[in-house]
Amino acid sequence: MRMVRITVDPLTRIEGHMRVSAEVDANGIITSAQSGGTLFRGFERMLQGKDPRDASLHISRICGVCPISQSITSTNALEELYQVSDRVPQNALAVRNFIQASNFMASHATHIYVLFGPDLANPRYRDVLTGSTLRLGATGDALWKELLGRFAPISYRMNGQDIPAGTSYLGAITEKKRLHEAITLFAGRMPHPASIAPGGVTCTPDLGEITKAAALYLKVMEFVQNYTLGVPLNTWIENTAQARSPQAAVKFVTDHLASIVDRSTGNNFSRENGWKDVELFAAFGSELVGEKILGLPASLKLDKLGGYSDPSKICFLSYGAFYDSTKDGYNPSSPAGERFMTSGVVRASNMRYENLDASKITESVARAFYEDEAPKHPYEGTTVPIADADKINFEAPQTEKYTWLKAPRYDGNAAEVGPLARMLVAQDPLITGLAQAFAENGMSPANVYTRMLARMHEVAVIAHKITDFLDDIDPAKRFAEPLDMRAGRNSRGAGLWEAPRGALGHWITTNRSGKIQNFQAVVPSTWNLGPRDENGIPCPVEQALVGNAVSGCDNIGGADFTNPVAIFHVGRSYDPCMACAVHTIDATGKNAPRDYELL
Hints:
alpha+beta; Cytochrome-c3 Hydrogenase, chain B; globular
């Protein structure tokens, strides 16, 4: 049998337009992959010549899913530009923290339940769990019933029959709406906040609004306890994120899962029997945890998808997020330990932490549809599309240009960003312990399973912290610091922050008139899904697809090239946001920058 080329274009249930192309051998194993963005990026060009103060309002329009992160990141850059970072009031930092935390939880809920979750109801798992190959009998039937009943999407059909939307799927949509209501109390609107501005925030929450925000949060936590997590939130945090060691955190989770397994006689995998969504995924999503540690008869084997075979070509990166809102001011360079979620880098080759050095960040356009081949730091970066339209070929080989995404690198390494990277950089006991366990068993510490479990765990970590941000708001104190516009001439600033999907950076420079001269945004999905660089090193998702059984579950029953669940799982495990990574511009010249001077 010849090599098969599978192209998923577009990869659905993500934000934006993503193309994935993979070569699969006769045994159904992916041998090579390319990730592509199919829209031109030009947001940086739109901002040239604009008043810098408009940047946070313009840039939040990049994406309707994570506009809070875009707005805060650009505001951080402007506060360094205007030299006011050290004087931003505590109240403003606390308000931003609460808005961002609510957005994190809403975004993660959307991804877990609405974007990634429906993959767990893929008919591939029906065939594996209820088919004749594994002969799981009533156990397989019961597990499939739970997966379908919780995660089936709206308007789902299988074998010509309508399938009701999953209970968890529907419940998460309601909670996302509730979290957006909490955001609008302080942000004014969602998406595209109106209150986040250089120097602070334009809102002045009173005690009634703070109380209403707390009430909305408590309603969200009812969903977490009823659907998501089978132990009280405080108990989970104390024994995982605050555990005395990585080994103790993993033991707590596996002991907790083992206790549920012990009482699941008669194949009772219901929520009422303790199998909340986190427990169900944690046990049955992993071959190592489910089959080898817990002794379950089968698993979805998601820990065997999306790993890295060459750790020397990958690292994990976080810029840090959530200010210390117990005091005024912050350091825009985000040194280690300053923020609740710290900055840093972990090399996959040794899994050791090192401090972040933002000067080591570059972007390559060698395989992207842009001019200027040399990799550059974002301060010197350009966004100039290639002039020859005939060279725009999404099917071009990996040695040529094949995408609109650029290729960010940290010290020459491709970097995974997102919840897994944040948890590893923060040395979170649970996720670090799981990573160590996979490495000790000869498996990649990063895989579809650990990415998704890290996202679920991060929801709990943020939910446990969010009330502190509300407590830090004092309606009697000020919420903003005025700007000195003169400081914005011939100046520059960098905003380093975390979006739900990972490290987000904005770099801005101004001219002698105080207008934006250059603006570059390096977004999470550019890190995760960009192309190969000038040295031919693939991006994280291109690396993570290689070596996967294209149908998942070790291709049990044979590879099905028409249903490449491995591509779906691996691609979506990074929670792609291609809308952040690519955009359009006005090519007519009618809206060219005007020549005006800022005071």
